[in-house]
Each structure stands twice: as structure tokens, then as C-alpha cells.
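Question (not urgent): is this output format expected?
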Amino acid sequence: MFKALAICLCLVVIPTVVLSQVDTARGDTSFIAFRSVEVSAGLVQRAITNAPFTVELVDSATLSEQPVRNVVDALAYVPGVDLRRRGALGVQTDVAIRGGTFEQTAVLLNGIRLNDVQTGHNTLSLPFLPTDIARLEVLKGGAARFFGAGALDGAVNIVLKRPRSSSLHASVVGGDVGYKEGRLSGEFETGLLAHQLSVAGLQHNGWVHNTDVEVYSGMYHGVMNSGNWNASIVLGVNSKAFGANGFYSPRFPDQYEKVHTYVGGVQATTILNASSDLTFRLGSRVNHDDFVLRRNDPDFYHNTHRTDAHLFQVGYRTGTNTEHVSVLAEVGHDAIHSSNLGDHARWRGSIMAEYANTMGRLGVSGGLGVVTFTDRAPLPTGGLEFTYDAGTNEQSADVLYANIQRSGRIPTYTELYYTDYQTSGNANLVPESALTAEVGYRRTANNHHMQAALFSRHGTNVIDYAIADSSGFATAANINTVDVIGLDLSSGLSFATGLIRYLRAGLTLQKVTASAPTSTRYIADNLSFLGIVEARACLPFSVQFTYLLRTVERVTKPTVYVTHDVKLSRQFNSITLFAEATNLASASYIETGWVTIPPRWFRAGASVQVL
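Got this back:
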């Protein structure tokens, strides 16, 4: 860890945060615009500058500047987020936050939960392009009271853009290992309705044997505003077929998988009066997973799974500028039909209430809730948050915050019932729970943002796979206690003039201690250090340049890995030409499973924006 810290300190001159709203063309930051952005997934919408918890924002401008081909990969550059990829470019990705596992992070679309009930490996199989996104909200810590049971260590909320009238965007990209990609999206209005459509497809041959990929996606987003009502609908499909060499075992290099994901959501809000509103949300996710152990011999070992998750929410909010009361009720249904796990189904329901009050510079909020299941004992949730506004002028905000949360999660169907030659589920698993706490400081000024937080989590009955012996066979088990303590630092600075327009960096240090008597697959292989540096510059001839560095050190293998990613772009009226490369130095390491990350990967393309 000390070696990693030394590397980071040598490279980081100015720390930064993803929270900034940077106008990359001008190189400045608008504090007023940033202050108006609200965390939109919770019961009470809060301005990010005054949020009583650590939250990071990745906006659409940032997504367009970074060398990412999908929304998921942008999370790799968020401090405190452990993005672990088997297949690159969104093929299969696990996301964990602050020492948790990939099952302990909630993923939402406009506040509607999208987690897959079979396994978190499929949760981020989503059909949304970076050009569809207004922002990513990354909330760190025990978020269960805001997003329901399951978010022990954090949540990622994907917020879609509001469609605007008459625009068309198209792009084509090519690159190493036969990489080919095409995208088309458009926006238009018909009366009270605004529409957004996008389709995309990519293929590549893979960087080693049996890592070829085909991915296709489509999405529709409609928005309507009429008097006291506003409503939206989202429909999307994502289809992937890929060689899975080393994804789940090094013994079978010809593993192959097809995953088809369908998501949908409807949200409507009506303003009851000057101080109250009522929100309805309906969400669905259907996932088909087809896996074979030998690509050319599917009868040797063949699993098929279908999962369904549906929910309906009603939320009520009332209050003034300084005081709010909110209540959120939800009913949902989960089901799985699997050749390996069998057929299972459950109903679930929850109710949560929250009260928030601002008394001068002091803000206090708290809430309680309970989540019930037809096949499990109820899970209580709740927490308290405090903020103190220490700012001295209108040009900046200085906020101290602290919170403590109780959250829980029931096991997934894979953890309960899946079996193969090296893995066994455990039908006797009990729900896991966690008590999380943090204290932090956030400063937001015209051209500078910084955030620092100390955090801790005490988990009980935490679910992981215990490895019994050298054969690697693992059985799902409850671990008595798993404790996490750590430090999050992030900060950013933008410049109105000069070569360098934006600098940011983030640093996460954490220690994970488990009571497990044997090694485990995920808890034991957690981050001990993560450092991120980003620089953006305006080069001669109006060429925009972005450089990103990540340094990673894990508990089980105390070796520092460093990756360098870059992007160059130049706009000519409605046409933008760009080139990007990831892992410039061809660092060789494994993020999860037995898959070495791809070496240097070059891609280049052009995009056209009409109207």
C-alpha cells in the first residue's frame, strides 16, 4: 500500500472530484449550475452541495470527454468504486463500493431499481449509451433507506437526458482486434411528448482465444409534461453473445454465453398543491442467460436461466423549503426459471418514511423502514444524517456531514441454489446486514470542488463463497463479521485559460477484516488502494485531450498496477473526429476471475450531430 501511495503522491499534484460541472470548451465551472443539481433517487431530493453523504456525479460532458464506449466503464474513474471487468467494454462487469461485493451495490434507472435477482454479474447488462445519459449519481455508503434492501455499500443511479426537439446523432468506430461499432440516436417532439430513440451494435474478435463479442442494444425514452403532471417511459433491450474464456474457470477455455436483458420503467408525478406531490413508479427487468461450458459441444454442460423482477412504488412528499416529510411504499415480485437453480418466486413489499429539517446552518434528517418477503424474514432499515453549512459567502459552499445507516440484503438465487463442479449454493443462508457510518467535508466553489470522508462498516452474516481447500471448491456461506474502515479523498480544479483546462484526482484507502476461517472469493480479494488522476487539455488546433491514470492495489496481491488511458478529439462544425486508447502501457493483471485485462487497445471514429 505504501508503494502505491508513493506513486500516487508523485503523480497527483492537484486532487479532484467527479462532482464538478465542467464546461470543457471554456474550461470553467459554474457553482450556481452545480448547486441546482439534485440527487434524484431518494425520497427527498437534495442539492448535491448539501447532501449528508458522499456522492459523486459523472455528467454527460465528462462521459463525452473520457475514453469510454459505454456507461459502465465510466465508473472505473470514480474514487471508491471497484469496477471489476471480465469482458471489456461492458460485456460483463461487477461493481462494488467501499469494501463491499458486487451483490451489495444497488443499480437504478431514474430511481427504479434494476438489480438482477439471479446474480450481480448480470446487473450491469443495460442498453443505455453515454449519449443517452444526463448523469450518473454514485452514492457511497449504506444507501438502503433511500433505495431499498440490498444497497449495503452504495448505489449507482442512471439519470437519462430529457429529450429535446429535432436532433440526430450518428457515429462509427473501428479499432484493434477487429473492433467495429455503430450508433444512431435521435430526438423529436410530437405535441406534449418528447421522444428519444437510440440503437447500437459492436463486434470484436477478442484479444486472446475465445474472447470475441457481439453486443446490440436499443432504447426508447419518452417524456410528457402537462399542467400539474409530468411522466416518462423507458423501454430498452440489450443482447450479448461472447466467448467467456476464463470468466468462471481456467479449466475450460471454450466457455460461451448469451445474455438478453429487457428493461422498462414508467414514472409519473402529480403536484397536489404548493407543498406536496405524489409519484408513481412501475419497473420491470427480464433477463435470459444461456451458458455452455464448451462452445462447440453445448450438450456437455448447458445452463439456461430466466429471471423476472417487477416493482410498483408510490411516494408522497410534503413540506417547505426547510422541512420535508416523505413516505415511499413498494410492492414487487421476483421469479427465476432455471435448468440449474430450479424454479422459485417470491413477493416483497416495503414501506419507508423520512423526515428532514433545516434549522439555520444545521440540517437533520432521519428515517425508518422495513422490507418484507414471502420467503425470508423482514429486514429493518433506517438511519440518521447531519449537515452543517460552514460557508461564509455565496460563491462557495462548505459543508460538514455525518451519517449512520442500518441496511440489509437477502441472498440472490445463485447464492442459494447454484451448483457446478467447483461451486455450491447454500439454501440455508440468512440475510446479511451492515451498520455503516461516515463523517465528511465537501467544498464547492466556482472552479474547485473537493470532498473528504472517513467511513466504516460493520457487517454481520455477510454472504460470500468460502474456499475450503487447494482445489478451489467454494460454498456460499454467512461470515460472522466483516469490518471495513477507510478514507475517501477527491478534488478537482478547472481553469478558464491556458493549456490545462481541468485536473482531478481521487484516492481511496481501505482495510477489510473478516472473521472467515478460510479464504473467500470476493471479500478477501478487495481493494486496499485506488488512485485516480485525470487531466484535460486544449491542444493546438483546438484538439481536446484527456488523460486518465488508475493505480490499483489489492489485499490478496500487494502489487501496484497502473493503467493509462487517453482520448483525442477535434470538432469540425457538426462532425467530431476522435481517437482513444486504453491501457497504453499494456499492464497485465486480473480484475476478477481468471481474465487478464486487455493490452493496449486503440480505437478511432467519427460522430455527426445534426441540429
